[in-house]
Amino acid sequence: MLPDQLDSESCEPAGTRIPPGKRLGEHLYEAILTMITRQKLTEGARLPPENELATLFGVSRPIVRETLARLREEGIIVSRRGSGSYVSRRATPADGLSEAKFDHIDSFEQIQKCYEFRKAIEGEAAFLAASNHTPESLESIREACASLGRDVAAGELGGNTDFEFHLAVAKSSGNEWFASALLAMRSQIELTIDIARSLSLNRSTEHLDTVQAEHVAVVEAIAGGDPVKSRNAMREHLTKTCSRIFRGPQHGASQDKPGSD
């Protein structure tokens, strides 16, 4: 069931509890970024401990740890064992505080529009990634795909891992605008991913393997250096995912044309 509203505006500075019904990890991420910018925490400044952040924003410590891990991955903070987390660099618009905001996902029509937009953006990102990827960025795509496979095998939702796979492809394009677009609409994308993957968990192992094979096809096309095949593989995956949400698993069959709508 869709939430009544997904607020894309940044949370207020420290001390504001995150309202129920929102993606806690995403909004805690935005709240900490806001804390860093509005409170003008300079590089080297220490963030509050995990338990204090959990109390300030009314979330669990696992949510705090997951959010801090994301901030570390993006180089915004560094953590020192036994000492805490510190600001490594100031947040920028590309870190999720952009003035550009995407619509809320509050209807099934918006889910379809999200996938239409993603096919346009991510198809071209995959096209460019086939030619512009580096050994390091290709390894990031492979590892994200492998992590997704492990989540599937463990029966886990894997929504965040799924997003990281698509973000790795965008980053491999060699054009930072693709990654910025995905980051700006991260909460919307992760919501649609969660819906799709929640439905998949109730389906057969064969179905789960089919979905994972679509991710593998994207990896193989990019690794093979074939731009057109990479674009088609990404668009086909997104088209089938959207179809499975609305029409069931039988509509992920191979008769769908690569890149078709």
Helicity, as a percent range: 55-70%
Instruction: Supply the number of helical segments.
Output: 10
Secondary-structure-based class equals: mainly alpha
- Give the second-level CATH assignment, the architecture of the largest domain: Up-down Bundle
Describe the structure.
- This protein is mostly helical and 261 residues long.
- It has 2 domains: 24-95, Winged helix-like DNA-binding domain superfamily/Winged helix DNA-binding domain (Arc Repressor Mutant, subunit A, Orthogonal Bundle); 108-252, Four Helix Bundle (Hemerythrin (Met), subunit A) (Up-down Bundle).
- Helix content is 61%, strand content 3%.
- It has 10 helices and 2 strands.
- A two-stranded antiparallel ribbon has the order 1-2.
- Strand 1 and strand 2 form a beta hairpin.
- Helix 5 (135-153) runs antiparallel to helix 9 (205-223).
- The radius of gyration is 19 Å and the shape is globular.
- The two termini are 25 Å apart.
